[in-house]
Amino acid sequence: MPQAYALSVKDGQTASVAIRQLPGRTFEGRVTRNAGTIDPTSRTLNVENRRTQPAGELLGGMFTQVTIAVAVSHPVVRVLRAP
Q1: Does 70 score more than 90 pLDDT?
Q2: Which of 28, 42, 51, 70 has the CA that lies 20 to 30 A from 12?
Q3: C-alpha dihedral sign at 59, 61, 62, 68
Q4: Burial of 32 (0-12, 13-18, 19+ CB in 10 A)
Q5: What would the 3-class secondary structure string for the chain be?
Q6: Longest CA–CA separation in the chain, Å
Q7: Of the candidates 25, 34, 15, 11, the residue with the CA atom closest to the CA atom of residue 58
């Protein structure tokens, strides 16, 4: 989790996991714990989440995209380029 959002991550929050190999599929889970400290090299917070996957589609070490809803402490500005 990027440092900007680290203080908003709490144990028990919903975490949605997706991988490119299974397009359109998501695996719902919960944040079970976090490192409690920011990694000085990457400026990120390590977060662990658990989810059910009855068919065993996810393997340890897979690259995934995890979405966790967090509060934004600053306004977000999106700049779009006109076509």
Answers
A1: no
A2: 42
A3: positive
A4: middle
A5: CEHHHHCCCCCCCEEEEECCCCCCCCEEEEEEEEEEEEECCCCEEEEEEEECCCCCCCCCCCCCEEEECCCCCCCCCCCCCCC
A6: 45
A7: 25
Site of tokens 């509060």: 71
Residue 74 has pLDDT above 70, yes or no: no
Q: What is the pLDDT of residues 11-44, one digit of tens each?
A: 999 999 999 999 999 999 999 998 999 999 999 9
* Both tokens assigned to 75: 């306004």
Over 70: is that where the pLDDT of 76 sits? no
CA 12, CA 63: separation in Å to the nearest integer? Answer: 22
Q: What pTM was computed for the model?
A: 0.68
Residue 32 pLDDT: 93
